Amino acid sequence: MMWRMASDPVFSGESQRDDDGADGVVTLEREGDAVVLRVTGELDLATAPKVQQKTDAALRERPPVLVIDLTAVTFLASAGMAVLVAAHRQAAPGTAVRVVAASRVTLRPLQLTKLTAELAVFPTTEQALAG
Length: 131
Fold this sequence. Notes:
- By secondary structure, the chain is of the alpha/beta class.
- Helices cover 31% and strands 31% of the residues.
- It contains four helices and six strands.
- It has a single domain (23-130), classed as Transcription Regulator spoIIAA, CATH 3.30.750.24.
- α1 (48-60) links the parallel β3 (34-43) and β4.
- The protein has a six-stranded mixed sheet.
- α1 runs parallel beside α2.
- The radius of gyration is 13 Å and the shape is globular.
């Protein structure tokens, strides 16, 4: 099944970057039929709404896979973890939400809060895309 949002550059094969001058940057990219949301910088109370907005937009299109890549995240707060849980719980049947977290900054908070038991967590984007 092909899905596309004509008004959104991410769905026309381009990368979409959202950098409003805050501490975090969110980029949406297509990888085949999957959507990869890359977060850079801090994922905290200030940047979580931006990540939530991009996640919601991607989930509305019902991709088979949504990868949330935290590789470049330098700080993961509870507000950021709440966005990950919301994405997982709001995904439509047929959409797998996968999180990339391998560093101590991102993986350790997920382990301490036991979210690794609820979320599908992978060490690399490639492994998350492969499932």
